[in-house]
Amino acid sequence: MEAKIESLIGTGLYSISEASRLTHVNSSTLRRWLEGYSFTYKGEKHSTPPRWRRQVDGKGSALGFLDLIEARVIGKFRKLGVRWRTLHAAGEAARQTFGADHPFATLRLSTDGRDIFYDVASEESDQAMIEVVHNQQVFTPFMRPLMIEVDFEKDLARRWWPMGKKRDVVLDPGRSFGKPIVDSSAIPTIVLARAAKAEGSVERVARWYDTTPEAVQDAIDFERKLAA
Fold first, then answer.
1. Beta partners for 45?
2. Coil, helix or strand at residue 148
3. What does the radius of gyration of the chain's CA atoms come to, in whole angstroms?
4. Model pTM?
5. Which of 8, 76, 192, 202 could bridge across to 219 with cysteines, CB 3.0–4.6 Å?
């Protein structure tokens, strides 16, 4: 058991419900993406395999940090109407081009993947993807948070600042198994938010945990946003 826990250090670990709250992808949808599903159409049974190979081994539903980032990006594409087969084709093309197991969590797909997106969209006649790639009013707002909120190392997503880098909340798979913490003191945001709610004083909680009132407030704002 200890060896298994050690193997998760630097990977991150999130349940379906946690990942759903963080990425704003419905939990049942996220589960289907990760586990695949079966359905019956015109009397015939069909099955859809998992959408990608997860970082965390085993049959459970846990996600790693790169899975979380991919789910976030893919979820945004889906909300814009991009078809799954287009995303699958784009992911496969990016894997071959960039050699990345998690192409939607790579810097190169964000910066160098525009041609991949366009070529695949043209082949699949996916107008939604073409619109994303060529319409600056869509493409820039879509890609900008990916570039600003995420730190990359060796082209892979390494940290996620879900409130932006001017706020103190970070998800770092190398710290606290990737759970949301305040960067300055590594205290889980949920701990600070709950303490502030119970005590009714940001300043007092900051003193208790030897952190700043600003860090406590960031934790409160983050947890409030997750609960919305």
1. 40
2. helix
3. 19
4. 0.88
5. 192
